[in-house]
């Protein structure tokens, strides 16, 4: 787990650790809660989730969670998750979810992170990336499009929430931004 580091020279992705909990909680804002987390984080809940993420790395489970770090400072700027198995995906698809803390938005870091995890997912055997975006979240849709994903359809999750599906053949993902 500790040896997984992906970088393009601007951002570095590495597995989340318990040392990241404070930075993650400090970076959480209304947008992350609304679009990604489903509710405000607590120390206990965030630590439990990060432990789950660590366990998934150790057991090579279907979830791979990365911290998005600004390469120069190793500062945690957000997270990007891969789910190799989840409801609605077909074999070969991997779901990608990402979020940046407010100070790091608008700098192209999420696009860089998505491209890096797509390369990792392809090396792990995934053939198609899926980004599910709430139709009211234009920023996330823009990241998907800049990362080479194309709108495919609108679907609903198991709770009935609508999501726009953006799809990308992982052999088509550019290696640099």
Structure in words:
- It is a single chain.
- By secondary structure, the chain is α+β, with helices and mostly antiparallel strands.
- It has helices at 21-27, 30-37, 43-59, 109-123, 138-146; strands at residues 6-7, 11-15, 63-70, 75-83, 93-100, 128-133, 150-156, 162-169.
- An 8-stranded mixed β-sheet has the order 1-2-3-4-5-6-8-7, with helices on both faces.
- A hairpin with a 3-residue loop joins strand 1 (6-7) and strand 2.
- Helix 1 (21-27) crosses helix 3.
- The protein is globular.
- The mean pLDDT is 89.
Helices, by number, come to 5
Q: Mean pLDDT, rounded to whole units?
A: 89
Shape: globular
Strand adjacency order, main sheet: 1-2-3-4-5-6-8-7
Task: Report the sheet-strand fraction.
Answer: 25-35%
Structural class of the secondary structure composition? Answer: alpha+beta
Main sheet characteristics: 8 strands, mixed
Number of strands: 8
In N-to-C order, the SSE pattern is EEHHHEEEHEHEE
Q: What radius of gyration results from the CA coordinates?
A: 15 Å
> Distance between termini?
26 Å
Fraction of residues in H or I helices: 25-40%
Low-confidence blocks of residues: none
């Amino acid at each position: 787990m500790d040896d997984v580091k992906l970088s393009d020279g601007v951002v570095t992705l590495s597995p989340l650790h318990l040392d990241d909990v404070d930075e993650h909680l400090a970076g959480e804002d209304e947008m992350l809660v609304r679009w990604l987390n489903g509710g405000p984080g607590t120390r206990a809940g965030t630590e439990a989730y990060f432990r789950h993420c660590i366990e998934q790395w150790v057991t090579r489970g279907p979830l791979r969670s990365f911290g998005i770090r600004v390469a120069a400072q190793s500062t945690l700027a957000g997270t990007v998750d891969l789910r190799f198995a989840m409801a609605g995906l077909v074999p070969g698809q991997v779901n990608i979810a990402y979020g940046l803390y407010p100070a790091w938005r608008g700098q192209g870091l999420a696009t860089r992170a998505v491209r890096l995890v797509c390369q990792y997912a392809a090396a792990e055997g995934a053939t198609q990336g899926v980004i599910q975006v709430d139709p009211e979240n234009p920023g996330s849709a823009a990241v998907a499009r800049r990362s080479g994903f194309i709108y495919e359809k609108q679907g609903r999750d198991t709770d009935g929430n609508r999501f726009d599906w953006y799809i990308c053949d992982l052999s088509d993902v550019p290696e640099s931004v």
